[in-house]
Queue: 4 jobs
Job 1
Amino acid sequence: MNTDCDLLVIGGGITGAGIALEAARRGLSVTLVEARDFAWGTSSRSSKLVHGGLRYLREGKPGLTRESVHERAALMRDAAGLVEPQGFLMAHYRGRSPGRWLLGAGLAIYDAFAGVRSRRYHAADRAAWLAPHLGRAGLQGASTYLDAKTDDARLVLRVLQEARVHGARLMNYTRVESLLRDATGVCGARLQPEAGAAYVLRARCVVNATGVWADGLRATLGAAPKLRPLRGSHLLFPLWRLPLAQAVAFMHPRDGRPVFAYPWEGIALVGTTDEDHAADLALEPGITRGEADYLFEALAWQFPSLALCDADVLSAYAGVRPVVASGRADPSKETRDHIVLDEAGLLTVTGGKLTTFRAIAVDALARLAPRLPAAGRSATGSIFAPVAKSAALAALPPALCERLIGRHGVATEALVACAAPGELARICGTPTLWAELRYAAQAEQVQHLDDLLLRRTRLGLLLRHGAAEILPRVEQIARPLLGWDATRWRAEVARYLDIVQRCHALPREATPGLEHA
């Protein structure tokens, strides 16, 4: 068979990136294409937690919890500086769930799977010291335990970087126009880059890893829908308005859904909602007024003394989860398991969670082994290759060095080397270096301004108004490297600020048809 590669992966989120990496590690020739930017969809709009999944214990799925805990440990080990430990606190109130003993039993299993004890119980006075702004009425105490957090978009980019090191070819802004089929089934795709002519790419196997958009590609083969798109929305606050030394998890007073608030990238992140998403999936999602009010209601109950309001919000974002539909009325009751479907030679991999992306990839490749024997090989060792510290890296403060290596891997030395004078300083109000902007524009396939400010860095979320105040300096750094003239820059700024206003600002009015149930 005349083919251009062994495996074509369609979709540049964490699932597609994980599959591309695991396939490339096994010696397969891999091409990955993404219709928009890498991590453009759910994989840059998650809750940014790498967690074991306590909810799976409640649902009677200890095996899934064990797998998640093991993957969490591997990521904290192999991606230190990118996947970081995060302490959690859950307060116990008189007459409210979960109680101390029930949660304690779940945490004991959690710790047993992890092989380390992180859980502790604290009396009410100690709980109030650990989280001073907790509501005090009926407070009996609190349980603490350990999970982890990450920058989800940078995790995708780090996985893709590792895949490229193993020989994978990666293309963003390259849309699948149609699937190719022969007597054996799907055998490639006709691709349309954003800039350039369409062309045909043939592959021995094709994987549909397009997340919430997977049913659209399956529909071209006549397959029935499998997914229930669910929207999860989040609010971001300055830490001085929502002071947190650790994550606080609690149940919403209205419906008992889990809500959390935790420190992330120098700000406080609050989420999440769980709503059926009926809007066109081609449109970038944003938080609705009803969802914002729902989260404010939760914050007013858990942190009553803070009196948080719209004016305190730095930014907001919403992601649409690819959840497998089971017909349950309550979206929160739907399973978060992943599925692997082989239909007419197209292998669809969707669902699942950020934490278990590697286990999902291994499962997918096992299904491809009959057609690609190399896919069945075991690939041992770390998720990411270790990065040797040069003299330039060793001269950096240790915490900064670990952070940069976690986010940029083998490219860290090049990033430091390309920094202009003063660019190894942090951008005010964020942990991001000016040099990270320069390196991303120079070497990370940036095609639009939102790629740079919402995914390569998270400045558009961390600073008010999408970081509009620093755009003049961003222009000085990035425009020459991207080859944009003044007209293109103005067009990119207008495009970017429109995205910020539509998708990352609080809506003042209700959004018809998209309100909280």
Job 2
Amino acid sequence: MLRQLRETMAEPLASQERLDKIVNVIAENMRADVCSFYVLRDDGALELFATKGLDREAVHMTTLRLGEGLVGLIAAEAEPLSLENAPSHPGFAYRPETGEERYNAFLGVPVLRAGQTLGVLVVQNAERRHFGEDETEALLTTATILAEMIATSDFDNLIKPGSDIDLRRPRMFTGVSLTDGIALGTVVLHDPRVVVTNFIAEDVEQEKLRLDAALEKMRVGIDAMLDHGDMQSSTDHREILETYRMFAHDRGWVHRLTEAIENGLTAEAAVERVQNDTRARMLRQTDPYIRERLHDLDDLANRLLRMLTGDHQGIGRNLPDNAVIVARNMGPAELLEYDRTKLRGVVLEEGGTTSHVAIVARSLGLVAVGQADSIVSICETGDDIIVDGPAGTVHIRPTPDVEQTYIDKVRISARRRAHYAALKDKPSVTRDGVDITLLHNSGLVADLPMLEDTGAAGVGLFRTELQFMIASRLPRLAEQIDLYAEAMRLAGDRPIVFRLLDIGGDKVVPYLRSMAEENPAMGYRSIRLGLDRPGLLRTQVRALLMAARGRPLKILVPMVTETFEFQQTKLVIRREVERLKRSGDPVPVELEIGAMVEVPSLLFELDQLLPEADFVSIGSNDLVQFLTAADRANPRVSASYDPIALPRLRAIKLVVDAARRYGLPITMCGELAGRPTEALALMAIGMNRLSMGPASIGPIKELILNLELEPIKRSVAAAMSDGAESVTIRELLKDWIDRQNLPV
């Protein structure tokens, strides 16, 4: 049957003629009275596309809704269904135009690709009989071939206007906005799926040998990675590979692959067939653990396909112009490996607004959207894509109307950027005379030239850990000096605040071994790690002092939990200063050391900490995370808490008021500062220094220039007083935004 199908697919036939011949081949070989093929349309209806045995007039006339009848049930559940007496089944839906009432025995299987249901393939017999497992498996194998034919053939002459086959139709995904802007471009899958072109086996035994060899090679590769020195400690990376190894040795998985080959598929087609079935089942599960294992199985299947096909295409490939990377998830180092001159955007199935890949995307000026569920399995490299950053929406294979709409939006956006550029030299002062200092958050020297474009007063936060995260080994002293010196050169006369190394938690540095932690966000990270590994801390401090070459230097200490930690860090810095003096090297003409407030316990030690500090910065990302006990990287809980609700805003105001008492400059360095409504809340409680991504400077400056701040300050102060909780801070600010007609 498979050989006949291959010959039929190779013939120069029209789409309908080919389908008609295919159902005849299947019916003949399955000894069935009926073979019918239903396609899932864009509107969710299953349309009868071809039949042998049912009335011909029903073709393209009979439809069933998803979940309706036996065919609709198979499509909805993506599971085969075998019945001896189909009309007696409670889900049976009679369609008189088909004449199907005279058939009893029924076997239907889903036609799947990438785990998505494309249609349903059915065989029927008049006499009652039971279709066995072998026959079900044979029909599933046939459905695999049919799915590939649908995905690659031209069905335009069969499809009514306004409908399309599900796999290649335009799709829209709603996720979470990670950055602003709009990107029109071409999909590049970060981990591209291997395209299987050879489906039907010539020699079953040879295909089984190929599978065994590929499995062994894959297992050896996984074992080698686990034996690598970097993996000897229990890290997240090791746990992932351990999961891979468990699946790679799973007998049930290997048995299903072998069974698919025995039914006539090549080894690579068998992998795709089994993974299709697995993906279809697991996509219908709600358990997040099951869904996470689906990613593991997808990655493992893709790894095995690469072994079988020799396709080892990776990041080093050439990018098209206006490339948009689509991935399940990725680290900042992986994003930085791409050619930034051709990159326009990034779309992730995971990833929140405070994830580090989102922060790097903002630094690079990329449009980014996260939490676009299942987008990797729906799109292909080369598809047209539109990423709407502010709306958090992604359009795959957009229609001409949608594309034109976004082309118009891009033109408007370009005019808006020109408008913001015209504001760069204007002082950021409110209408009632309150001076607000606007600064950049940065971590790459590549985005420092944007200081000239935005007119920002300086860099309020330079994340030094990005250099460590993108390196394959610990950066040497000279390499660190070069980076910091270049950053200072690009900043020119503007101040730049260097935050000491903030790694650990979700900022993984693979070459630094660490023990597995149940809650890494509250574990061995940041200044705790630096004080525990004084050589690492001293080297970075020395690099910063030497890079300054006598110029003023600002150093920010992250994740301070108690005053003692800050004092210990200052002691390390002073010793390095004395060391430079003894060696005759220049020391900074002015050295300021600041503390980052992002741990709630520090709110109760402000009177001990602030006299020790030269300035204060607030890291809202971690502070809000710890105040709400909501993991900022977990979208299921992180979106449930308003960061400017009264409890969080009161905590931030404690720090603002304390800094004012001690006469210290205070800067907000978290993501809140770059969002207009949140920035307005911060200004209303007395925060006059805001550090944000470069793209946010223009919108926030325009807000400031149109703002009368004092009445909003009084209103927010009244709302924050005890018992005055009739409206939320957000609702209160929205009212003021409307009253003052503020641009947000």
Job 3
Amino acid sequence: MKKISLLAALILVAACKEESKTREPITVNYPTTKKVDTVDNYFGTDVPDPYRWLEDDRSEETEAWVKTQNATTFGYLDKIPFREDLKNRLEKLWNYEKVGSPFKEGNYTYYYKNNGLQNQYVVYRKKEGGEEEVFLDPNTFSEDGTTSLMGLSFTKDGSKAAYLISEGGSDWRKGIIIDAESKEIVEDTLVDIKFSGISWKGNDGFYYSSYDKPEGSELSAKTDQHKLYFHKLGTPQSEDKIVFGGTPEEKHRYVGGYVSEDENYLFITASISTSGNKLFMMDLSQDNPELITILDDTDSDTYVIDNEGSKLFLVTNREAPNKKVVVVDASSPSPENWEDLIPETENVLTAGTGGGYFFTEYMVDAISKVLQYDYDGNLVREVELPGVGSAGGFGGKKEDKEFYFSFTNYNTPGSLYKYNVETGEYEQYWKPQIDFNPDDYESKQVFYNSKDGTKVPMIITYKKGTELNGKNPTILYGYGGFNVSLTPSFSIVNAVWMEQGGVYAVPNLRGGGEYGKKWHIAGTKLNKQNVFDDFIAAAEYLIDNNYTSKEYLAIRGGSNGGLLVGATMTQRPDLMQVALPAVGVMDMLRYHTFTAGAGWAYDYGTSEDSEEMFNYIKGYSPVHNVKEGTEYPATLVTTGDHDDRVVPAHSFKFAAELQEKQAGDQPTLIRIETNAGHGAGTPVSKTIEQYADIFGFTFFNMGYDELPNQAVLKEFKD
């Protein structure tokens, strides 16, 4: 059993403390993690996998390991003197009413609302001039708040609804059908729905997608044949008809179906990975509709956004990396007949529809710009947004004359605005009453050069008047993958960090979608190292420009961002004081063998593709690059024991490697949330506890005996 202790003498922040002082070290006794003799051979190279046994999430041995690791971790966290102060401040700041954009279904207007500290948002509704009433309260679904509402869909007339629930954060869902007026359940619960929405066909039934339940563990066993079903109301789920995906020829990892607003067409997407899809359609006005191919390759991301009769409008990045809107007739919908309606620009397009118009949001260096077009492709107006940041929600039904959009940035809590589609005028509909003053903070966008000279944008947010003396506690957050764009948005937890004098920095790394498909591809497969280089260069920029220094820098990311943190800290352990990898993809040689992980191969490639790809992946895989005798930063790995997206074995193995090989005095701990998944639907109470632990660990390992800004804590206590 290996022992380490924290440094007894810690570097203290000069702005907060005049004199240095010492404290009693916290000794960590790590549990022993047994090793096995498992070895895999890739292209003639033997690769040991001594912690393979931790992949068995159903074994008593793994369960015991989780308990002992948590006991060790919480034993450490319990000794952090200001952890409870952080939790209290998070609760206080979190405790304000939050409202989602209203939407009309039948005779009611519905909206999501949280009164402050409710574990899950509640769905309310009211008739025009009527009283507000609760429609669905997910807080009643389970005693501990870990069962969440993960989808809600109404029939076109609003008379019926179906909703999906997740238990313990799992991606496997249950479907419940209700009469919308009475709110009574009308038939048996559907089970085993995964990676799916619900799309109604009239009042007869709806389409949904799922996999056959795998043999072995439902949390980690491989799932790779997605199927689209139609559920006819009044019939058992066992009789649900497979619409697409049931044959070897139709085998795809991700299949989805959605019905057009006029209910005349069913559109089906089919993908083998997280990027690129085939596209099919069925004419639902026919008695036995045939499957019609729109697009029979996966070389683009293409979907139908709307239709007018037989005229189809599609959003695509086919021969347009930044996306465009095209139009085609349903009688001959293949690409050679597409005509540009809203051409590609130098900025990435996201399109929505509402009130008989297109609304195109463009990312200009990750900042929103919104244009309104008519259905002939004529520009109607640019929507003058409330400020510089991220706008969302531009869309609604065809008959809507007004809808709601949201606006936020890193230091401005999200507000809602009611938009008139004909005049372009809008008014603030709802503004949060939060104990946080955005005017005290500022965001600035900078551009820095990565290792190969590529210019990368980064937004840095902090309290006005912050002295750039190299001693500001800083979180560098990143993702860099799967065409995901990180745009400015407000976060309560980041507000608490910045209240304490913290700097929050977010670079837009390659692998993301901020600059279109080319930017995405530049961070995939044999280009994946570009993402890590971009992140490392961001850290170096913050240090070189005196925002922070190594002693006050923490790096953080989740999922693919957890991989980012794991790769960065193993490549440059000297660069940061704290590493916070969350639900990360850490074993890159085996990620594709779990659940739907093989679908990520578009971004990563796999260790089985070729010897070149194997060697490249092994060169950065976090689990395989923890080296004996290296001083790693203080590390708090976080995961959930029910994560069936990125299975917790990734984090288990990485933590075990760090605990065995850490040569320095910094702690390497793992915090495993029980009865929790990849993150979506996590109860507010659990989220607050998690961030109190994460921020407490971070400040403590940056050398703080008390929080940097005690005045804030005193103010809210008073």
Job 4
Amino acid sequence: MCGIIGYIGERQACQVIVKGLKRLEYRGYDSAGIVTEENGALHIKKGAGKIDELAEKLGLLEMPGKRGIGHTRWATHGVPNDVNAHPQTDCSGKIALVHNGIIENYGEIKEELLKRGHVFKSDTDTEVIAHLIEDELKSSKSFEEAMRKALLKLKGSFALGIIYTEEPDRLYFVRNESPLVLGIGEGENFAASDVPAFLEYTNRAVFLDDGEYAVITKDSCVVKKLSTGEVIDKPVQEIGWTLEMAEKAGYEHFMLKEIYEQPRAIRDAIHGNAEVIENVAKEIAKYDKIFFVAMGTSYHAALVGKYLLQRLAKKVPIVEEASEFRYEMEELIDEDTLVIAITQSGETADTLAAMKLAKARGAKVLAIVNVIGSMATRIADLTLYTHAGPEIGVAATKTYTTQLTVLTMLAIALARTLGTADKEYLRQLEENLNRIPELVEKVLKHDGALRELAEELKEKRDFFYIGRSIGVPTALEGALKLKEISYIHAEGLSAGELKHGPLALLEEGVPVVAIAPSGKTFDKMLSNIEEAKARGAYIIALGDNESLKKVSDVIIEMPPMDELLTPIVYVVPLQILAYHLAVLRGNDPDKPRNLAKSVTVE
């Protein structure tokens, strides 16, 4: 996830763009850049670092020209450095563009362009787009035609801002599965990833849909279909948000916004790993001694990974908290060991220490990380990125579901490589994984009902979350979310453990949240729910089986899906419930007490 902005009008473009980038910095903050145009020449300044640092260091506020585009980056391809920062250009230096998204087929396109003599400067997927447009320009009647032909060859997600020196009166903006909105002014026009970038200047906006592009001048804005070039009549909407509200896209808190971003984040995780996952699977296929190391929410993702590898790849991993790994496992680690480290930030101290120990003992280390260029990526032998984008709320939401998505892809690829699961089943599972964003969107519609439920439960002191098999990590994560932001005591546990002690704590009205999808342990789970119900517990069940209605006080109806995919979807209503309980109890869910986003000390 990155932030882009463009401006054309009578103001000094760089001033508008820098202001806009500051308001988009929550979308990415590892590098930034601006290109402006004056008298047919492009002026480009970019580098690694945050906007304020670069504005002073590079003189971003002194660039000439009254049209330009800017970018603040959350790296997806290529480490954060000066060369990989946007804008990216073609060989001629006449085309410059900024990009938010992931191009899935950039590798094959780049290989073809290299054969045709194109010279690349960066490691980004974005630069491929500039060269592809340049290549199409040789056989096209206009720049717009060349741009359309080039973009129709891309697979993946993209929001683009494009500037071309030989058309001094216009800018181009394109949307496909990445957000883009136009700002309509008087004698000036804007485009950006989010409304706050231009809200200081205008509250009139046009929201582009997927497969649309806009040609903007200072006095006009024309929207067209990318597939045909046909003009589309788009309504202009008046935005009633304040700037602060707009940064959160109208949501009250970043956490809620990030919960709702999960369908997009999951799609990006799938797109971003489509080309690399098979190669990683082949690299790790020989290892039978496998450890997962992680902390907090990432540890719960590791537990899901364990079940996935067991079921699909017939591997039996050990999951260890990173804080304990180096004290207990050192003598078990050798060159025949694979360590899979999961860390959102890539800077978690305990996880980094575990990775370093594994490397020192000769083990192969695979990192599953959200932040490109973080320390974990530099220690690991192999890295898979979750592509969730920046997460402002301390409590992990979209970074967790994207970790689960990547782990599911890895397990499928590993099973295919090893031949440990039926090929047709793996194909169906992969297809169903691609539909998970749609299922998450359906589950998000429970928001209103979950808020009403939170009203009933806000005075409760204790919660229990129970699950079986692959549902246990979801129970653990649901309990953690509640503890983190609502400050209510909660326990997550295997439902099979109830009669071995925890039943003694159940009394009349105690909420028990049951993770109960259809699957191999459903009947056992139903019996466990009945055990809790018989002790007076208030049962809140998540599932898709009609028989849950007989034993539950509240049912959150979930869409049917393969049991192995349920952890990605079933955690979403638990995130929402925790969020509403926190708000109703007067807490700030974005900044829970005593906690930090990344734990960089042991």
